C-alpha cells in the first residue's frame, strides 16, 4: 500500500513498480484518436521541482479521471504505470510516460504553486535547426503579419489554416502555421471580431446464396472433387518445425552498429556480451494466469473490502476484472555490447527463463510484493553480467521512426541450447507473427508455476530471500531451501528437447531437471 508513503519526484519514477505516489499540477490536457490506441486523453503534468511528464488515459477511464484532473489544479496521484515515452511530437523531454487507469487514486493536494512551468526556447535556437524534432517546445513572441484564414484539403478533409509571423525581444522572427481551432482563436484575438464555427471489416460466409455464388458453382469443372482434410505426418511436422527454429542460425552475424542504423523492419542475429542490468525496469512483473497480460494491485477494492483481505486483490486490464491466479514473469532489460557499439535488449519470460535457469516465481519465493529497491537483484540474474550470448533481435517501426533504443530478443543461443519466444510474447508495440501489442503492456505466455493466492494471504518478502543471497547468516537463509509451498503446474510447460529446441511437453515436472542437464552439458 502507498498510504502514508512519502511523495516521489517525477524525475525518479520508473517502470519497476506501480505503487508510486506523486503530487503534480495539470499543465495541459487534450483528447486525440489514433489507429493503434483508439481514443485517449493526454495530459502534461509537473511537480513542484519543475519536472514535466506526459500522462495518458485510455477511453474507458476518461469519464472518471477527466473530471478529477482539471487543468491548473494540483492533485495527488497514486498507483499508476510507467512506460517508455516514444514517438513523434512528444510533449515533454522525459524518457518516461505515466499511464493512468481505473486503479489510479486521485485526491486533492495541499501544495499550491502558481507556475505554468514553461520551458521557453529562443527563436534563434529554433532557426539554428539543432533541436530534436521529436519533441514539442514552448515558445513566446509577438504576433505579426497575420493572414486570412484559409480552408485547405488535408488527407481528404478540409481544415482551416492561418499563417503568421512570430518575433521575440531580439527581433528574431519565425513563420508560424496554426490549424483548426487554434487558427480561429488567434484570428479572433488579432482582429477583435467574433468568429462563428459551424475499419474496414471482413465477413466470412460459408456456402453463400447469391447470383455470383450460383454462377461460380456452375462454372466449376464436373470432376467430382471433394474437400479432403489432410492429416500432417507427425515426424514430418516435427522436422519442419525444427528447420524453422534453426533457420535463424543461418543468418549472417551482424553488429550492434548494424541494428542501430537499420532502415527496414527485420530481424538480426548478433553476438554480444552482457555488461549490466537496467534496473530502471526491475526484473519481473506479475502476469494474469488466464490471458497472460500484466496485472496490477487493485488498491481501491482492497481498501473498500471489509474486513480487509489478507491477500492482494489483482486487476487485469485485458480481462476487465479482478483475478486470483497470477504468476511472476521475467522481464529483463540488459545492457549489452560488442566491438562496434553498446545497446539495450529486453527478454521476456520464455527466453529469460532459459538463460537464468530458474523461474521468476522460484526466485521470489512465492512473494507477491512489488519491487521497492531496484538494485536488489538475485544472484541468478546478476550472474548474466559478463556472459556472452547469440541473440535474434527485432528491429521494428518504433526503432526506425521513433528512436526506441531497446530491442526485443526473439531467440537466444546458449552453447547448444536454443530458447525461443512464443508468438505474441511481446512488450510495447512489438510485432511478432502479425500480433501487435500496445505501449506499456507485457504479454508473456503463462506456461508453469501459476500461483494462486492462498487463503491465508501468505506473501513472503522477496527482500528476505535476496538478503539471504547477499551474506545473511545461514540460519536465516531462505535461498538454501525450496519454495515452501507447492505451486500448481500447467500441462503446457516448456521443455528443451535433445536437439536443443523448446517444445511443449505434458510432463511439466520433468522440464526443469532436463533444462539444468542440457545447460550443464
TrEMBL record:
InterPro entries: Euk_RPA1_DBD_C, NA-bd_OB-fold, RFA1B/D_OB_1st. SUPFAM superfamilies: Nucleic acid-binding proteins. It comes from the Eukaryota. Gene3D superfamilies: Nucleic acid-binding proteins (2.40.50.140). Transmembrane segments: none annotated. Residues 447-461 have a biased composition (Polar residues). Residues 507-521 have a biased composition (Basic and acidic residues). Residues 7-109 form the Replication protein A 70 kDa DNA-binding subunit B/D first OB fold domain. Residues 447-521 are annotated as: Disordered. This is Replication protein A 70 kDa DNA-binding subunit B/D first OB fold domain-containing protein.
Amino acid at each position: 500500500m502507498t498510504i502514508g508513503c512519502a511523495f516521489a519526484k517525477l524525475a525518479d519514477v520508473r517502470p519497476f513498480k506501480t505503487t508510486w505516489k506523486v503530487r503534480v499540477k495539470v499543465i495541459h490536457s487534450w483528447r486525440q484518436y489514433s489507429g493503434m490506441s483508439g481514443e485517449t486523453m493526454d495530459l502534461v503534468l509537473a511537480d513542484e521541482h519543475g519536472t514535466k511528464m506526459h500522462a495518458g488515459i485510455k477511453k474507458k477511464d476518461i469519464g472518471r479521471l477527466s473530471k478529477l484532473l482539471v487543468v491548473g489544479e494540483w492533485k495527488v496521484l497514486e498507483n499508476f504505470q510507467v512506460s517508455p515515452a516514444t514517438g513523434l511530437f512528444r510533449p515533454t523531454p522525459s524518457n518516461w510516460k505515466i499511464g493512468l487507469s481505473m486503479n489510479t487514486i486521485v485526491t486533492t493536494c495541499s501544495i499550491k504553486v502558481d507556475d505554468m512551468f514553461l520551458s521557453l526556447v529562443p527563436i534563434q535556437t529554433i532557426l539554428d535547426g539543432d533541436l530534436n524534432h521529436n519533441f514539442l517546445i514552448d515558445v513566446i513572441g509577438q504576433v505579426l503579419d497575420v493572414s486570412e484564414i484559409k480552408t485547405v484539403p488535408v488527407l481528404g478533409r478540409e481544415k482551416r489554416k492561418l499563417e503568421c509571423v512570430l518575433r521575440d525581444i531580439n527581433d528574431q522572427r519565425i513563420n508560424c502555421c496554426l490549424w483548426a481551432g487554434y487558427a480561429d482563436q488567434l484570428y479572433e484575438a488579432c482582429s477583435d471580431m467574433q468568429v462563428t464555427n459551424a475499419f474496414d471489416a471482413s465477413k466470412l460466409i460459408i456456402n453463400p446464396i447469391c447470383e455470383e455464388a450460383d454462377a461460380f458453382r456452375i462454372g466449376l469443372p464436373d470432376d467430382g472433387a471433394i474437400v479432403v482434410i489432410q492429416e500432417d505426418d507427425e515426424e514430418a511436422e516435427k522436422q519442419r518445425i525444427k528447420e524453422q527454429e534453426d533457420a535463424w542460425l543461418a543468418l549472417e552475424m551482424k553488429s550492434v552498429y548494424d541494428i542501430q542504423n537499420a532502415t527496414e523492419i527485420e530481424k538480426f542475429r548478433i553476438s554480444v556480451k552482457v555488461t549490466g542490468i537496467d534496473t530502471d525496469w526491475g526484473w519481473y512483473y506479475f502476469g494474469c494466469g488466464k490471458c497472460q497480460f500484466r496485472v496490477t494491485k487493485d488498491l481501491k477494492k482492497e481498501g473498500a473490502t471489509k474486513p480487509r483481505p489478507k491477500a492482494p486483490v489483482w486487476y487485469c486490464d485485458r480481462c476487465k476484472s479482478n483475478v486470483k491466479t497470477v504468476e511472476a514473469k521475467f522481464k529483463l532489460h540488459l545492457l549489452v555490447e560488442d566491438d562496434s557499439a553498446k545497446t539495450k535488449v529486453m527478454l521476456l519470460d520464455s527466453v529469460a527463463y532459459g538463460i537464468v535457469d530458474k523461474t521468476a516465481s522460484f526466485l521470489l519465493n512465492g512473494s507477491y510484493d512489488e519491487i521497492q529497491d531496484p538494485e536488489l537483484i538475485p544472484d541468478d540474474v546478476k550472474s548474466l553480467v559478463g556472459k556472452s550470448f547469440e541473440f535474434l533481435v527485432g528491429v521494428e517501426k518504433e526503432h526506425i521512426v521513433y528512436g526506441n533504443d531497446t530491442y526485443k530478443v526473439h531467440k537466444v543461443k546458449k552453447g547448444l541450447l536454443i530458447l525461443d519466444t512464443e508468438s505474441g510474447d511481446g512488450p510495447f508495440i512489438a510485432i511478432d507473427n502479425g500480433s501487435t501489442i500496445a505501449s506499456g503492456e507485457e504479454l508473456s505466455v503463462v506456461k508453469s508455476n501459476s500461483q494462486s493466492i492462498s487463503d491465508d494471504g501468505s506473501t513472503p518478502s522477496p527482500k528476505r530471500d535476496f538478503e539471504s543471497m547477499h551474506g545473511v547468516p545461514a540460519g536465516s537463509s531462505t535461498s538454501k531451501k525450496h519454495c515452501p509451498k507447492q505451486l500448481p503446474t500447467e500441462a503446457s510447460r516448456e521443455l528443451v528437447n535433445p536437439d536443443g529446441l523448446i517444445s511443449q511437453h505434458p510432463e511439466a515436472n520433468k522440464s526443469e531437471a532436463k533444462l539444468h542437464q542440457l545447460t550443464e552439458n
